[in-house]
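PROTOCOL LOG
Step 1. Enter all chains and additional molecules of the complex.
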Amino acid sequence: MNNSESYPPILRHLSHPRHHQPDGGDPIRESEPDPLPLIDLQLLSHDMNMQKVLEDACKHWGLFRLVNHGIPSTLLTQLQHQAKQLFSLSFESKQASCNAADPVTYFWGTPALTSSGTPLTTAPQNINWFEGFNMSLPHLSQFQPQLPQLHSFRDTVVEYGEHLSRIGRRLFEAMVKKLDLNIEASSSYVAESTGIMRIYRYPKCSNSDVGLGMEVHTDSSVLSILSQENEVSGLELLKDHQWLTVKPVSNTLIVNLGDMMQAISDDKYKSVTHRVKLNNEGERISLCYFVFPDEELEINSSNYRPFTYKQFRTQVQQDIKTVGNKVGLPRFQHTPHSSHENLQK
Ligand SMILES: O=C(O)CCC(=O)C(=O)O
Ligand SMILES: [Fe+2]
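Step 2. Run joint prediction.
Step 3. Record the structure below.
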């Protein structure tokens, strides 16, 4: 089997006609030094300067790079290696490996999934050029996969997931401290029962006209934590009307704030708009962890009417089916927003 046959058939034809690409502003500035805010997790508990850097990153970027996170580098490289092996299996075996009732599902072409991890629509408006596995972390350790490769991967992801939930909680606590919010149980806002892990593989592509690896969107999460250990770049964030590359730097994590964090902070913090471009250097593998509030927890703020994450998710799914894309937070503003120019996931 050649590598192309390990991709879903629809992703094997990278010569598709041009798809609509949302206006990207200026081209990526690959050669410039990394401009992202840098947060040291170990310093965060006691260093006021670091707390200020975090506050500014949340207000003005919605994204930062995290170092000293406490995850052994061997675990990060092992994950990347095992993910690569998993993706290199034939499309048919990946497809047959999970079904909708499992905590692990296989999907491609669209990031919009139902809460059980199956694609929301069978005919997405644009193809997103990736394949992925979606894993519900709380149910993962009991999962008995058919594919032998999924056994060792499951165990590694369970271990990684424990680190991420620790990191997510610490970051959230440091973020809300700066907001003077009266949040008693931060565990309901970054609820372990909601943790999702996704791994993605984006094909190598020399023709960026085919479309995007992943469409322009904001995440619905409170926080998303990304690991990109394979040196192929692709992720970009929108900052001051320009797309900036989020370079892969070994042993660092990328944290982005999602819509729930923006709502909890009453718009003081920002849910970052981002996308993934295809790359002609090689295929790219990324691992993304998402954490959400407890489904039934009511989020109260002055800019939005009270809503639960469950209501938000239902609205997003309804909009994707009816309008064709996510509208997101503007749906919950006191005065409904009329311009939905941002395509959000
Ligand atoms: O693959 C990436 O780098 C980003 C993925 C992403 O933005 C998402 O899953 O929401
Ligand atoms: Fe995202």
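Step 4. Note key features.
Residues 15-29, 339-345 have pLDDT under 50 and may be disordered.
The longest strand covers residues 128-136.
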